[in-house]
Amino acid sequence: MEKLNIDKVAKLAHVSRSVVSRVLNNHPNVSEEAKQRVLEIVEKYNYRPNTVARSLATRSTYQIGVLTSRIGEESLGNGYWSLLYLGIFEECIRRGYYVSLSFYSSSMTDELHEHLLNEHHLDGIICLNEEVTEFTVKKLSEKEIPIVLVGHNPDYPDICSVDVNNYEGTYKAVKYLIDLGHENIGGIFGDQNVQETEHRLRGYTNALNEAGIQPNSEFTAVGSYTQHDGLRTMNRWAKKFPEMTALFCASDTIAMGALLALYENNISVPEQFSVVGFDGLPISRYLIPPLTTIAQPTYGKGEKAARLLIDRIQNKSKKAEQVNLKPKLVIRKSTAKVNQTRTR
Amino acid sequence: MEKLNIDKVAKLAHVSRSVVSRVLNNHPNVSEEAKQRVLEIVEKYNYRPNTVARSLATRSTYQIGVLTSRIGEESLGNGYWSLLYLGIFEECIRRGYYVSLSFYSSSMTDELHEHLLNEHHLDGIICLNEEVTEFTVKKLSEKEIPIVLVGHNPDYPDICSVDVNNYEGTYKAVKYLIDLGHENIGGIFGDQNVQETEHRLRGYTNALNEAGIQPNSEFTAVGSYTQHDGLRTMNRWAKKFPEMTALFCASDTIAMGALLALYENNISVPEQFSVVGFDGLPISRYLIPPLTTIAQPTYGKGEKAARLLIDRIQNKSKKAEQVNLKPKLVIRKSTAKVNQTRTR
DNA sequence: TTGTAAGCGTTATCAC
DNA sequence: GTGATAACGCTTACAA
Fold first, then answer.
1. Are residues A157 and A306 located together in one domain of the fold?
2. How many angstroms separate the CA of A7 from the C1' of D13?
3. Across chain A, where does the E strand assignment appear?
């Protein structure tokens, strides 16, 4: 009952270690008879080859790394990341890859960061946001290790990426509010200087323009994807802009904060004020009131990212690809036809 | 600019490979002079030792696995898991360990499960819930790989575990409601047949008994830690038990669902009905109204689990330890003095 | 203090 | 089809 290795298995099966290796790797050129003998022993002693040794010999670890920046506890817990990771994980497992999730944070020493991307360790890397992308790409530029980004990044056109169509999603949301009769529509957006935000802003502006509504620059704010930001901004606006009757939020978490601000200012949703979010997180349907939102295929995003990455790992010559996913408007209870005045 | 290995570095530094190895591992018995030469080359060529080869030689991978069951998207996204994982991750990184997060699900084939626990791959494992525990312990019983459980499990007294004091937390919550004057207090609990639930139920019952209130068995429900469960149960109770004026929820997610049910039934919180949650998730302060809850050190739980595990890995003879963390009542806006009647 | 050599457990090449 | 044998890149006795 000792720890088995390939040699012992070979001995027990009365073959050489090469035969065992071939059987285990489904290589041709091994007699049915020998194969059976080996399989029998493997089964009997429950032998499993040592992954580490295999990695050393094949130069591939079947491990892929997922990197995201540590963005404070609040934003981590919002469900978006978990779902994204779940998509990645399950696709990887199906294709025989392990995956490890790491957080990048600026408070970590460089040594630690090196450690994360530790050489010869990962077959590929998925970057979940921009902070992480720059750092990773720079560190890995000379190595041949494939990278996939979640969220397009114009700075790296020859790297694979997956994203939802941010323009389209936002356009749909704002168009929907306009169709409900709203004209004074605020917009709270996420991270500044990110293409994603830029596209969403354009979607917002264009929808307004096309409806003949002049966008009011004071009605938009850019910050971060947090409840805190939604709360703070909406709190300010609730007092400052009594004419505002609807709000687009660039994430469900922002919407969650905004909803709370509205509640605290005694503005009832959707009777007096409509709110639409973005993401379609599982929790969005449990907000008060259940949130109308632009659902994106978060799980699918992760799945697709993993697929692109593994394809790239297994076929290095494959061309970089930018995949766009479709957003979908999910109507719930946080939106309604505009009401003449906020104070009924 | 070729790929470096220890031999090339040795050659460049005019020493033998063992000297390089010693320098890299901070072993004694290497002259300052040689050390400097090696370090210089390492720096100059940015050499990093190959982790895989090192693992093969040392028989330790410096990787630890975190296993949790795939519990549906809803419960994954609630923030508790992310926070727990973050605690684990950061402690591991500090101690030089990688960590990989895996989901166990019954829909996966056994082969895949084998794959997850793939032999010779992980130095240790942290199990985040019971479904996973049994499976893992069984698979790993013969190997010497350390395990730490998050959540005590009486079935495995000789395995390390970390948990919050569930009895105390629940007792505090219910006691608080009683002090507010509530007498008809419901309780929605999580997973059945888990020690955690048992302890929380006891905390609930004891608090009631000590206040001279006869617990009403119809006032408790056991289900799962989801918004859905809170919504469903509270919806039923809202109609069935008009005398109920307060509710303890075994998780903030359950409370979130309950809050929605109350909203939909036009019962206002906290004026007519008080709710207290459990966990103290970041989002709990953004619920409507902001939730009074029993905060547990979720991040700290993960951190502690990782600490226990790594201690065990580095010192196998260390005794198993059951760590209890302290819960804390956080008072916000979802609770208030009891009101005579629900229909004001 | 330094270097040599023997592992670690695989895969891969190449005779047979 | 099969089996030596040489990698893979590192650690670690042990000898010098």
1. yes
2. 24
3. 63-69, 98-104, 124-127, 147-150, 160-164, 185-191, 220-223, 246-249, 274-279, 292-295, 322-325, 328-330
Nucleic strand D under 7 Å from the C-beta of A39: no
Same domain, B182 and B273: yes
Per-residue pLDDT of B163-217, as tens digits, reads 999 999 999 999 999 999 999 999 999 998 889 999 999 999 999 999 999 999 9
Q: What's the domain range around A186?
A: 166-296
Give every CB contact of residue A312 below 8 A, 6+ residues apart in sequence.
Answer: A124, A146, A148, A160, A318
Q: What is the pTM of this model?
A: 0.93
The residues, ordered by sequence, that sit 6+ positions from A113 with a Cβ below 8 Å of its Cβ are A104, A135, A139
CATH number of the domain bearing residue A269: 3.40.50.2300
Same domain for B10 and B101, yes or no, is no
pLDDT tens-digit profile of A185-227? 999 999 988 899 999 999 999 999 999 999 999 999 999 999 9
Question: In 10 A of CB A242, how many CB atoms?
Answer: 13
Q: Are residues B292 and B302 in the same domain?
A: no
- As to burial, measured by CB atoms within 10 angstroms (0-12 exposed, 13-18 middle, 19+ buried), residue A288 is buried
Q: Are strands A185-191 and A124-127 parallel, antiparallel or unpaired?
A: unpaired
At A115, list the tokens.
């450690």
Residues A282 and A174 in one domain: yes
Q: Say whether A56 and B51 touch across the interface (CB within 8 A).
A: no
Contact yes or no for B52 and A55 at CB 8 A:
yes
Are B290 and B305 in the same domain?
A: no
pLDDT in tens, A3-57: 889 999 999 999 999 999 999 999 988 999 999 999 999 999 999 999 999 999 9
d(CA B47, C1' C14) / Å: 34
Which pLDDT does position B72 carry in this prediction? Answer: 76
Check pLDDT > 80 for residue A344. Answer: no
Query: From the Cβ of A59, is strand D under 7 Å away?
Result: yes
Chains A, B: CB pairs < 8 Å: 166
What letter does residue B334 receive in the DSSP assignment?
Answer: S
Helix ranges (DSSP H) in A51-194: 51-58, 72-76, 80-94, 110-116, 130-140, 166-179
Cis peptide before B157 (omega within 30 of 0): no
Residues of B in Cβ contact (< 8 Å) with A73: 79, 83, 86, 282, 299
A335 within some domain: no
Alpha-carbon dihedral angle through residues B140, B146, B151, B153, given to the nearest 10 degrees: 60
Per the structure, how many domains does chain A have?
Answer: 3
% of chain B at pLDDT higher than 90: 76
When scoring B64, B288, B298, B332 by the number of chain A Cβ atoms within 10 A, the one with the most, hence best to mutate, is B288
For residue B99, the number of C-alpha atoms closer than 13 Å in the C-beta half-sphere is 29
A263-295: pLDDT as tens digits: 999 999 999 999 999 999 999 999 999 999 999
**Nearest-CA residue to the C1' of D12?**
B18
Phi and psi dihedrals of B266, rounded to 5? Answer: 60, 35
Instruction: Give dist(CA A303, CA A301) in Å, integer.
Output: 5
User: Does residue A343 lie in a domain region?
Assistant: no
- The predicted-structure confidence for B15-71, as pLDDT tens digits, reads as follows 999 999 999 999 988 999 999 999 999 999 999 999 999 999 999 999 999 999 887
Q: Where are the alpha helices (DSSP H) in B211-291?
A: 227-240, 252-264
Listed in sequence order, the residues at least 6 apart from B18 whose beta carbon sits closer than 8 Å to its beta carbon are none
